[in-house]
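FYI - complex with NDP, inputs then prediction.
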Amino acid sequence: MTSSIGIIGVGEIASACVDGLCARPDHPRFFLSPRTAERAARLAEAHDRVEVCASNQEVVESSEMIVLSVLPGQVGSVLADLDIPGDRTVVSAVAGVSTEALTPLLPHDPTLVRVIPLPAVRERRGVTAVFPAHPATEEIFDSLGGTVVAADEAQFSTLSAATATMSAHFAFLTGIADWLEAQGWSRADAEHFVRGEFGGLATALEDPNTSLSDLIPAHETPGGLNEMLRAEWMDEDNRARLARALDHVHERVTGSSTSG
Ligand SMILES: NC(=O)C1=CN([C@@H]2O[C@H](COP(=O)(O)OP(=O)(O)OC[C@H]3O[C@@H](n4cnc5c(N)ncnc54)[C@H](OP(=O)(O)O)[C@@H]3O)[C@@H](O)[C@H]2O)C=CC1
């Protein structure tokens, strides 16, 4: 595995990666940007071989692989201040900023890989999209839960669009709790019940031998209540609206620029 990883942008997703990787006793050394001092200090205190550098450039000097995990609107100014040698690998987690947009910001032409890590990497259960194929990057993210490698950047961006569905999932669960509350349940009981109902379904998702479409009949009785709700709620119109909403997000992520 890569022996040293630098992190520029020690935010939510990068710290989830560091926590996840540091669960392995043989984890790489980490060199963190000093910008988010409190979070970087927590990571350095929690794990062996994790150091906070004096500057972003020191992160670059110390690391074989540099994970770039700032917000899309920050990436231009962050890279303008850095000199990244051509023998480094830059792994960009920055959403929606294409290789074409990043390349002019990396004049020494380091290897550039794009990834979409998800928060579950912290528990080593996050499947990360990677483009292009890059064995060292895949090894890192395989150890955090798995990877899918896109054949081209257009295909990669479809997974970026798919990640936009997470909060809608929670909005769906909130809608069920809202309905229960409107029927007279306390908010606490309604939420407790919905959390239990859906938390229990995670196990079904973990079985790779059952396709998602097979999980539908596995969770309904013919002519039963689940079938009734699904047919009325997730009808053709609703599925088409979901596909259209994904199209719109996809259009947004593919029309990217470094100004985010
Ligand atoms: N969260 C997620 O689930 C996912 C996020 N992403 C992408 O990953 C990137 C990071 O997201 P996330 O972790 O959620 O965002 P955060 O806002 O939590 O993290 C961004 C970090 O970058 C730091 N930063 C800003 N400017 C600089 C700088 N000049 N030098 C060093 N660090 C700097 C910020 O510090 P400060 O707070 O001081 O500004 C902050 O700690 C984004 O592009 C996002 O789109 C991709 C997949 C999933």
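The longest strand covers residues 111-116. The two ends are 32 Å apart (CA to CA).
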